[in-house]
Amino acid sequence: MNMKIAIIGGGAAGFFSAITAKENYPTANVVIFEKSQQLLSKVKISGGGRCNVAHACTSIDELCKAYPRGGKSLKKAFHIFSPNQTIEWFESRGVPLVIQDDHRVFPKSQSSQSIIDCFLKEAKRLKIEIELGTSIKGIKQIDDQLELDFLNKGHQPKRFHKVVVATGGSPQRKGLEWLEVLNHKIENPVPSLFTFNMPTESITQLMGIVVENTLVNIQGTKFKSGGPLLITHWGMSGPVILKLSAFGARILSELDYDFKVQVNWVNETNNDVVADLLKSIVHSHSKKILSNMRPYFLPERLWLYLLEKSDISAEKMWGELGKKSLNKLVRVLTNDVYQVKGKTTFKEEFVTCGGVSLKSIDLNTMQSKVCKNLYFAGEILDIDAITGGYNFQSAWTTGFIAGKLN
What we know:
CATH superfamily of the largest domain: FAD/NAD(P)-binding domain
Strand order of the largest sheet: 17-16-13-14-15-12-18
Distance between the termini: 19 Å
Structural class: alpha+beta
């Protein structure tokens, strides 16, 4: 009798594990159950519709650092299926890829449709069945088989030899109860990868400004991050903010997204160094007015805003700056404080911190430790990363290992 394999979830990890399973077990009957009417919806919108499939990271140690949760645990898994193997996997299946200067990897077509078409073509070639609009209510272990119970009316329970759960991130614990009843440990799901809302701060008037080299930390915590910051009409975004939101996901949830951030606009933690630079401008350009001579090549609108915030006239000459005003400038450049009240999802790329605990999984096989022949792949696990192709990489890696069904 042919092996029957069910894949729950028609997203990135679901398709990757289904294709891997069928290639490993060519005579098996593999079926993907997707609760919505659309396959690979997150793949479609990712990377602004371009699909950032991977991050060309040659060092596994460096790769692991991009994961606030799951990085260390996945170290061995990334050696089994690495970013290089991801690139090779897609290119060998007719999807040429390009590696950008920032090491992010995209299809050469610059369209996520190329990735979707590749998966659908592979599924068709391998005769993988796909059932849309099919929701799973629960799983029962009966001897060595797993019985799937469906929410859909008229759907009778079906038994499978192996089942891979790849349903993606769940924004609420309620969506994970069907796995919790099987004795899997669940890490409470909270949002990750979001931007900071600042409804009471006037800096939002500077929307569109990017400052390339900032250092931001969440006041009262150990979380800090450096990199580009984008000012938006609702608050702050950009890589530095998104990284903070990922690493601080749990604590920010506990704070109910009401906290302060300290922004160092010049990414220099030694205030004496900043003071010395300002003094050198006073000495060398004493006759120039403040608005015309910007330290650290700060964007003009931001510099004028910071001067106003410090109660210093932009028409003043650098030579007229007293010690008190100079200290104010050092403070606003290195320790500018803003109140955050709320969050906004980054584009449409919702990522969840939390899910099925890695303690419940054998990471060598992605098989459940408490339910034989049940495997997990992708964001349903308590794994998440910063932006840059890392979240897809964990989907491909866990999907590949789960699909082996060892």
